[in-house]
Amino acid sequence: MSASAVFILDVKGKPLISRNYKGDVAMSEIEHFMPLLMQREEEGALAPLLSHGRVHFLWIKHSNLYLVATTLKNANASLVYSFLYKTVEVFSEYFKELEEESIRDNFVIVYELLDELMDFGFPQTTDSKILQEYITQQGNKLETGKSRVPPTVTNAVSWRSEGIKYKKNEVFIDVIESVNLLVNANGSVLLSEIVGTIKLKVFLSGMPELRLGLNDRVLFELTGRSKNKSVELEDVKFHQCVRLSRFDNDRTISFIPPDGDFELMSYRLSTQVKPLIWIESVIEKFSHSRVEIMVKAKGQFKKQSVANGVEISVPVPSDADSPRFKTSVGSAKYVPEKNIVIWSIKSFPGGKEYLMRAHFGLPSVEKEEEEGRPPIGVKFEIPYFTVSGIQVRYMKIIEKSGYQALPWVRYITQSGDYQLRTS
After folding, report:
1. CATH number corresponding to 277-383
2. Does domain 5-132 have CATH number 3.30.450.60?
3. pTM confidence score
4. Residue 150's pLDDT band (boundaries 50, 70, 90)?
5. Is the pLDDT of residue 266 over 90?
6. At the fourth CATH level, which superfamily is domain 170-273+387-420?
7. CA 312 to chain centre
8. For range 318-341, the mean pLDDT
């Protein structure tokens, strides 16, 4: 059992949308949510689940909206939160930006979607591609006899329509890994993890079954193969199309895919990652009238790889002025509203080392309090490369008509929360 009712509130707690699925929670109960939220926040005891009397509020915040589900029972909380996040995903795909204005402008469609997303407290059709087949942007109400719900909704495979045809059958696989890294002022790595996703773009006719093989360590152990080039995946999360029982039994990722773009799976690896782009900085202040910052960046990845779109954000004193820059490559610009210098390097090959010098004027009066120095942030993207070493070993495509299809694989490593503290 999931939620009894779902509400969408603005930042002040005023309901914009309410949908009561079971009628056992009074609409007036939502008035208690915002005061309860503010009270818990003041007490420092804010939690994602709040209770008032017999009513439990399970809530998330997105942009300037609160999405709140209510229940009187001991419901499956993880199911309710999955539903709320899925609701955000569906609305975002319909309206591009999910915020108060988009809800007000599209309340007819929002109500139609909420009716289809859940029925009597049970999640129902949550795939936006299928919903878009019969709930259009114009928000026309369904009329019995004139418009029929696609049979896909009642099929066992509710995420894919039948009768799809393509002249050229192809599958594009993107393996994208984000590196989260925190390095302290002494150069020691405090936090290091890889968050990965495997995204597919499917252009296949009919109702094909796909089987994806990775160099998964557990699979290699089951089959008795060498573990040298295998990776140990943690916190694996799959799209609903994946047959979980097959994965549990023999680590086979078997599925009938949705049409077009979707995220097949996500994973995490807690592993010691060598910083791909290493940063050193030296800051010198001269008689409280000027400051000079020297930043050295080094690519610590394979020489045959290239990092694209590198942006190094260097914090500067809030009272700095008269900026001057000198870079060995790329360009630097001062962003005063954020108190940072952004050093942009279009192409950064592995093994290379570059310098940036910045000169700022400072007021003659020294500040009484020493400012805390934020860390240096780095953004980048390295194509044809993964930090974990994960590999797509094979992709089998089985369809009753027996057509041949081409799978294309692309690997990308990018920065996640990548920060280096300075002394």
Report:
1. 2.60.40.1170
2. yes
3. 0.75
4. low
5. yes
6. Mu homology domain, subdomain B (2.60.40.1170)
7. 22
8. 91
